[in-house]
Amino acid sequence: LVSEEHASLLAAAKYFIYTLPRRLVLTFPMSMLLAVLLAMSRLSGDSEITGIRAGGVSLYRIAAPIAAVGLLASLVGLGFQEFVVPGATARANEILQSEIQSGNVNIISNEVVRTSLSNGDAQVTYAAGFDTTTQSLEDIAVQVYRGETLLSLLVAPRARYQNSTWELHNAISYRLAPVCCTVGNLPITRVNIGASPTQLIELSKRPEDLSRNQLRPLLRSAKQSGDQSRYALLLVTYDSKLARPFASLVFTLLAIPLGIRRQRSTSGAGFGISIAIVFAFYVFTTICLAIGRTAPQLSLVMAWLPNLLFGAIGIWLLNRAAKV
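Above: the chain sequence. Below: its structure as tokens.
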């Protein structure tokens, strides 16, 4: 930021601090995995686990408080994700826009808004940018479809939000169906694109940066407008936001039995195991979420499947270790 955007050190530092919560949420599961692996490996290597079990304490009882810490880490991660990350990310974006990018007001680029008209036609609005100071859209195009047929096209260099509707200036209208082709010049015309400036700003935010409460109205809006692609993205993000923090508990369950090592094992093996587990888990999670986007009806199952599968593997390994 300092070298490329010529930002001040203070602005860059503030931006870095406000982006930390988002990064911390992602590191909670990996931190728990490595911490439990190394702790169990050290206890096992010093024969502490053997001594405790020789005193009549089962491995399940040893694992219970560790699993409780994993559950606590999951709940803390969920709280961070829902109550800290959205506000911190919004503040980071404000700093990026006002202090680092020299007050660039064009915070939206290539925005698309889809909505259904009262007669059943579909309206799709494209905008190249949005000026927050004047509440204006730049290079706007409004298309109306009936099924797969493009009925009309309305283009304008600028549209300003006035009295709960968008006022297009120097617009050109094209009537393409059922009779082609009619062209008209409209100095001023009003169009309801289905979104206010506030809603446009919300639409421009990444779903990953929003809380589940913030995603709910966007989900309803996408469903009502018939935007299936955006609805699928929002739905799988909404479901995964609840499942993702519990990866801390899953990784803890995996790390407990995997950390119990033989005398000839080295502590460095724990780091290698943690990398392999994290890689396998997140590759599988990415595949599941991609399936969830293509099949929204499976979104909830796909969001939780990695946790369920790897959690089951962890419990199976724990049961096997307890019988040794």
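The mean pLDDT is 86.
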